[in-house]
């Protein structure tokens, strides 16, 4: 076992959050505002509404908590992935098979859920409380007000955590755990399989530099996009469940049924465009930081199996 993946994963995770938070906030606003007078159907309107509140209270509202927390989440994810790969291929002399990479990704995706779910609940709760600024075309109607303020507004993650715990107990932090399991486990397997396959292809065809910077950016960005394409319905339901602190939904199936009943099946794909737009830069940066850090850390603190393989090859 080595701590290299845990360290590199933590830094990579924090980097990705900083890049993607404004996109993530915009996506959530679209996913929870799909019916009624104040629905947001266009990315432009949703982004403008969030941006109107400024950086601190809009685009980057609630960011510091996930920056720190997702350092831990990604540390667990990459650490478990690396150690699972070594468990499946202990000699470290043969490149892992596609099935081994996919399985290790699924295991890593499962391992981070206990930490990731409370982080998501708090983050989404704060993002959902951003006041809605209506676009000018809809303000002209007397039915709309310029600013739609939330009923409750928490100053930050500490107040949000205290209120959630006080009203709902520990289980309040695990809303949407089941749907996160369905979303994350297969998608993280695909995520890492896509990355490893693309990364190998780019290196094999000489389409990168010596340090693999170009390969990490391209493979990471495309892998992130690919992993999101099939799981948007789960993400929409997750977002709605995790911001529901009033008991509107009884659970996953109730939320799915009511969402489709009110907004049609199209509602399950709300925010797809902004999600894909976000996925490329976030995952490109995440894998770039991770790959370069792990490269340097392995020089300082090589894993015993790597040293053994090197000695065998030289002997």
From TrEMBL:
Compartment(s) where it occurs, according to its Swiss-Prot or TrEMBL record: Mitochondrion membrane
Signal peptide (from-to): none
Entry's Gene Ontology molecular function annotations: transmembrane transporter activity
Major location category of this protein: mitochondrion
Keywords: Membrane, Mitochondrion, Repeat, Transmembrane, Transmembrane helix, Transport
Residue stretches of each Solcar repeat: 1-87, 96-201, 211-296
Membrane topology reported for the UniProt record: Multi-pass membrane protein
One GO term describing the cellular component: mitochondrial membrane
Classification via Gene3D superfamilies: Mitochondrial carrier domain
Pfam families: Mito_carr (PF00153)
InterPro entries assigned to the protein according to its UniProt record, in alphabetical order: MCP_dom_sf, MCP_transmembrane, Mitochondrial_Carrier
Claim: 4Fe-4S is one of the keywords in the record: no
UniProt KW Protein biosynthesis keyword: no
Transmembrane segments: 63-81, 212-231, 266-290
Family to which the UniProt record says this protein belongs: Belongs to the mitochondrial carrier (TC 2.A.29) family.
Name of the protein described by the UniProt record: Uncharacterized protein
Organism of provenance: Candidula unifasciata
């Amino acid at each position: 076992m080595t701590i290299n993946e845990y360290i590199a994963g933590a830094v990579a995770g924090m980097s990705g959050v900083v890049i993607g938070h404004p996109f993530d906030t915009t996506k959530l606003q679209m996913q929870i505002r799909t019916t009624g007078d104040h629905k947001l159907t266009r990315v432009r309107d949703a982004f403008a509404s969030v941006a109107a509140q400024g950086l601190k209270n809009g685009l980057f509202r609630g960011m510091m908590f996930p920056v720190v927390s997702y350092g831990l989440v990604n540390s667990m994810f990459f650490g478990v992935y690396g150690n699972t790969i070594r468990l499946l291929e202990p000699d470290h002399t043969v490149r892992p098979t596609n099935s081994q990479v996919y399985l290790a990704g699924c295991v890593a995706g499962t391992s981070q859920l206990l930490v990731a779910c409370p982080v998501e609940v708090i983050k989404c709760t704060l993002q959902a409380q951003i006041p809605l600024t209506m676009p000018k075309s809809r303000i002209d109607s007397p039915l709309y007000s310029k600013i739609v303020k939330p009923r409750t507004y928490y100053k930050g993650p500490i107040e949000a955590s205290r209120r959630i715990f006080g009203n709902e107990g520990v289980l309040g932090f695990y809303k949407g755990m089941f749907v996160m399991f369905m979303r994350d486990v297969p998608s993280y397997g695909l995520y890492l399989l896509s990355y490893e396959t693309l990364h190998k292809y780019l290196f094999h065809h000489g389409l990168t530099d010596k340090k693999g910077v170009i390969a990490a950016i391209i493979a990471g960005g495309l892998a992130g996009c690919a992993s999101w394409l099939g799981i948007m319905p789960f993400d929409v339901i997750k977002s709605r469940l995790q911001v529901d602190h009033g008991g509107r939904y009884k659970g996953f199936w109730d939320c799915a049924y009511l969402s489709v009943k009110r907004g049609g099946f199209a509602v399950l794909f709300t925010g797809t465009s902004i999600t894909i737009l976000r996925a490329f830069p976030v995952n490109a940066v995440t894998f770039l930081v991770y790959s370069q850090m792990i490269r340097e850390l392995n020089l300082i603190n090589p894993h015993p199996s790597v040293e053994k393989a090197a000695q065998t090859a030289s002997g």
